[in-house]
Structure formats: structure tokens, C-alpha cells
Design goal:
This is Long-chain-fatty-acyl-CoA reductase. Keywords: NADP. The structure is a single chain. It contains 16 helices and 19 strands. By secondary structure, it is an alpha/beta fold. The strands form four sheets. A seven-stranded mixed β-sheet has the order 2-1-9-8-7-10-11, with helices on both faces. α2 runs antiparallel to α3 and α2 runs antiparallel to α7. The radius of gyration is 25 Å and the shape is globular.
Length: 486
């Protein structure tokens, strides 16, 4: 069998030497890639003064480059993306139609207006373009500017767009990026980088992107790379074990920006049950939040608190609503959601066991591994709520929305809400318990460039914020002119 080759890209140079065989996640594909240990001295930028060429570019220059790149990321015209898409069918946690739909959408992220909105909202373009002055109360003139940094990005592979998000953020900040490709998506960032090399091999934005694959946990390699003389920031997405692993390298001069594992929930208010139309609308919206990318994202709904009531009539409402959600989930477009690639067998065993306990749980679907809706018949989530995956959600009946607050904590990323009218009573309370993002039901997977993420502002954190103070005795009190105490 011929193994595909995933080259290494180091600042405009495409490397295909010193190949070793590695396996993508899931065991369906092995590929060849350069041995990262052979290039450990080339991967870091080294001298931070080498970032200077990025400052010959204006923000409009960066936008021009991004738009030109977007034109070249049309899937039907880009052989690198086509190859990456085909190979990702084997490594991705989702099915081919979802993978292909994600690749088809990449070029739309490179809109001039979208990137401008993101940069203005998350950083402020004037801080990227130069020193922003202000006069303080004591007369000091203060200038502030956001500079780029030498950054390592450990990218998650559960969504194709994350690699492009990373590249766009890096361009806007005028940073130098090394992207560690994930084992479940080793090809996307590489395909984009190769497109950039073909388009403008000597452009500063091309010359400040590197993409490499190495097996996570290679301590000898990481110990050499993850050093303050090589990097200033590590942006890490990932599960608990991988995040814990990265923290061992953090030291003064090397900052970790952690986009760590989260889970999400939904809230369905009592007004949903005022009409059949409301129930159907909420069901479709909730199905989208459960089923998006087959529930592989932190944003996807898993436990759903439904203000149906817990009496006999309330449980009947809940079960009818659960059936509507299940039906809507099966009807989602196949670029958003499908029968899962591999239904987790441990999860299936839990779900099947609940079928035998129909007094306390009603299980809708799931027999064919297509996903299931579990309707609790008491106001408590299932014991395996943290393991819900593969389009499997748990609807929990409550009498009052306050009953679900104890289930919200620092791991709660997104809370989808329906109807919109109950947002006002929730949006000032949910964050106190730990919720990080509140969204209209059905839009959980529609994350926005312009918004904070995981209760931080990663774009601001990824930049280096530098101040310049200008003071003179004529305008600001001089420390050396303070009166002495006798």
C-alpha cells in the first residue's frame, strides 16, 4: 500500500525529506511525514527581530492577502484541499458529507468584511496599526500598541475550520505561528499552507507560518522546542490529558493560552409548550445544537433542561417533545449531521440499559447507532451525562429554570436558550455559575470570530500589549522632585 505524504512547511519551504510513518487517529490511515526531530533547529523563528518584516504590511495589505487566499480555497479548484478532504474522510471523527461540507465552507471565512469585524471587535485595528495615544489624569502621555508574538498552536481536529481560524488570527496579529497538526486532522492546515506557498512564497505572511506533525508526548522533542528563547506563547486546544501535559513546559517567558475541554447544555422554557408550532420550532433548533458535526464539538448540546413540569402532564409534554427532537435530528442536512461514523459502544451499552428502566427513562431511537434522545422521568441527568456523544442527548424535566443552575460550572461553555424571551432572566445569572457563552437555540455551532471564546479574549491574549509612557516635570509630577521628610 502506498502511504500518502504530509509534507512539513517551514516558513515557505515545503519539506518532504526524512520521512517516517505515523498513524492518524482512529487507525484507518497511516501516512508519511518528515521526522520533526530532524528539523527542531529550523522550526523556531529564533531571533524575535525577524518579525519585523510583518510590520512593513498595513492592515489593508493583510486583508488583500486574505481575500486572495480565500479565492484559492474553493474546494473544486484546489488540489491540496481536495486531497486533504479525501484523506480526512479516514482520520476525522465525523462522516464524509460533514467533512466535505466543512471544506466547502473554508473560503467564506476569508471575507474582507468578516476579518475586519473580527479584528476591530477583538483587538481594535488602530492598536494593530500603530501606537494609540491618550493623556492620563496626571498629565502623562500614554501610547499603547499590540505586537505579534512567536506562537505555537496545538490545534484541535474536531472541526476543519479551526486550522484556518488559527492562520487568520496569526495574520491579523502579525505573529509567527508553528501549527502542530492534530492526528485527527493532519492535512487541513498543511493544505492551506501549501496554497499560501504557491500563491506568494516570499510574502511575509507566508514566511511566518509553519505546519508540522509530531506525536504528542514526545518529551525529548517538546523539551527542546517549548522554550522561551523559541516561543512566547502556546495556544492549546485539547482534552484534559493533553492540556495537563502541556502545562509542564510553562515557565516565565512562555505563556499558555488554554482553550481546554468544555461541555454545553440547553434550556427550554415553559412557553415552548404554548403551541405545537413552538414545540416544533424548538425541536428543530435543539436537534441542530445536538447534531452539529455529530456532537463532536464542545459547543454541542448534551444535557437539556426542559421546563415542561415534572408532574404526569409535564412528563407527557417532555416525551412528545423528545420525539419531535429525534425526528428533527434525523432530518438535518448531511453537511451538518449524519448517523455517526462509529457509535461509541460503551455509550450504547449505557443507553440500551436504560431501555430496561422505562419507569425512570424513556429512550427514543439509538437502536441502529443513529443517535438517541433520552427523556429522564425525574429531574436529574443520567449518571453518564459527561459521556454523551454521537448525537445522544438527555432531556431533563424541571419545574423552574433555577433548578438547573447547580449543573452549570466552569466547564460549561455554551448554553442554548429557547424562547428568546427568557434570555433576560438568565444572561446575568448563568455567568455567575460558570457559563461562558449564551446563544439562541439552534446557533450553538455558529461560533463568531468577533466574540470572546471560553470566557477569555484569545486574540488579545495572543498579542503582546506594549506601553510607552511620555512624561516631563512640566506636565507630570516628577518622582525625584518629591519633598523629603525631616
Amino acid at each position: 500500500m502506498t502511504h500518502p505524504i504530509a509534507p512539513m512547511i517551514i516558513r515557505g519551504q515545503v519539506i518532504t525529506d526524512n520521512l517516517i510513518e505515523v498513524g492518524g487517529r482512529g487507525g484507518d490511515l497511516s501516512f508519511l511525514t518528515p521526522d520533526a526531530n530532524k528539523y527542531i533547529d529550523q522550526l523556531p523563528l529564533g531571533n524575535p527581530a525577524k518579525l519585523a518584516d510583518l510590520y512593513s504590511l498595513s492592515f489593508e495589505d493583510i486583508l488583500d492577502y486574505a481575500v486572495a487566499l480565500g479565492e484559492r480555497l474553493a474546494l473544486d479548484k484546489n488540489r491540496y484541499l481536495q486531497e486533504a478532504c479525501e484523506l480526512s474522510y479516514l482520520t476525522a471523527p465525523t462522516t464524509p458529507s460533514i467533512v466535505k461540507g466543512s471544506y466547502m465552507g473554508l473560503q467564506h471565512l476569508l471575507s474582507r468584511e468578516l476579518i475586519r469585524e473580527m479584528a476591530e471587535s477583538t483587538v481594535g485595528i488602530n492598536y494593530l496599526e500603530g501606537w494609540v495615544p491618550q493623556t492620563l489624569l496626571d498629565g502623562t502621555q500614554l501610547e499603547v500598541r499590540c505586537f505579534g508574538a512567536r506562537t505555537l498552536h496545538i490545534v484541535a481536529g474536531n472541526a476543519v475550520s479551526l486550522s484556518l481560524w488559527t492562520i487568520i488570527r496569526n495574520m491579523v496579529l502579525r505573529s509567527d505561528a508553528i501549527i502542530k497538526a492534530p492526528s485527527n486532522d493532519p492535512f487541513t492546515a498543511l493544505a492551506i499552507a501549501r496554497t499560501m506557498v504557491d500563491m506568494a512564497p516570499d510574502h511575509p505572511l507566508t514566511k511566518h507560518l509553519s505546519v508540522a506533525y509530531w506525536k504528542g508526548g514526545d518529551e525529548a522533542f517538546e523539551q527542546r522546542l517549548y522554550q522561551p528563547q523559541n516561543l512566547e506563547k502556546i495556544v492549546a486546544w485539547g482534552g484534559f490529558a493533553s492540556m495537563k501535559h502541556v502545562t509542564r513546559y510553562i515557565q516565565p517567558g512562555l505563556e499558555l493560552i488554554s482553550l481546554d475541554p468544555k461541555r454545553s447544555a440547553s434550556i427550554i422554557g415553559k412557553d415552548t409548550f404554548d403551541s405545537e408550532a413552538n414545540m416544533r420550532e424548538a425541536a428543530v433548533r435543539l436537534a441542530a445544537d445536538i447534531g452539529a458535526i455529530n456532537q463532536k464539538g464542545c459547543v454541542c448540546a448534551r444535557v437539556v433542561y426542559v421546563q415542561s413540569g415534572t408532574d404526569e402532564q409535564g412528563l407527557e409534554r417532555l416525551n412528545v417533545f423528545g420525539q419531535y427532537v429525534y425526528e428533527a435530528m434525523l432530518g438535518l442536512p448531511n453537511t451538518l449531521s449524519t448517523t455517526p461514523k462509529r457509535y461509541d459502544q460503551g455509550l450504547k451499552a449505557h443507553v440500551d440499559a436504560l431501555r430496561l428502566d422505562d419507569e425512570w427513562y424513556k429512550v427514543i431511537g439509538g437502536k441502529a447507532g443513529e443517535g438517541a434522545i433520552i427523556c429522564s422521568q425525574l429531574p436529574e441527568p443520567v449518571s453518564f451525562a459527561a459521556s454523551l456523544d454521537d448525537r445522544t442527548a438527555n432531556l431533563v424535566p424541571v419545574d423552574d429554570l433555577s433548578e438547573m443552575m447547580n449543573a452549570v460550572d466552569a466547564y460549561t461553555q455554551t448554553v442554548g436558550v429557547y424562547p428568546e424571551s427568557i434570555k433576560d432572566q438568565l444572561k446575568d445569572v448563568l455567568p455567575l455559575y460558570g457559563a461562558q457563552r449564551i446563544v439562541s437555540l439552534g446557533y450553538a455551532a455558529a461560533m463568531k470570530f468577533a466574540a470572546p471564546q471560553d470566557s477569555i479574549e484569545p486574540m488579545r491574549r495572543m498579542g503582546k500589549w506594549i506601553s510607552n509612557q511620555i512624561a516631563a516635570p512640566e506636565t507630570s509630577a516628577a518622582p525625584w522632585l518629591r519633598p523629603s521628610i525631616s
